[in-house]
Amino acid sequence: MKKKNKKIIVSLILLIVLFSIVLILIIKNNKTNTFDYKETQIALTIDGVSSLSFPSSGEYTVNVSCDNAMGRWNAKTWKLEVTKITGIPACQISFTTGSDLLSSKMTTAGTSGNGIIVESTHGYRYQGNNPNNYVWFNDEMWRIIGYVPVCLTSGCSSTENRVKIIRKEIIGGLVYKANTTNDSTWMDSTIQKLLNTCYLGKKSDTDSTCASYCYSYYTSSRKPVAKCDYSSIGINESEYYGSMIESVYWNVGEPSSASYVNADSQYTKEIASYTSSTSKIGLMYASDWGYAIEGYTGALGYKDDPDIYMKKNWLFSNGNEWTMSALTSSYPFTADYRGYLYNEDTYDSCAARPALYLKSNVYVVSGSGSESDPYIIGM
Question: Is the pTM of this model over 0.85?
Answer without folding.
Answer: yes
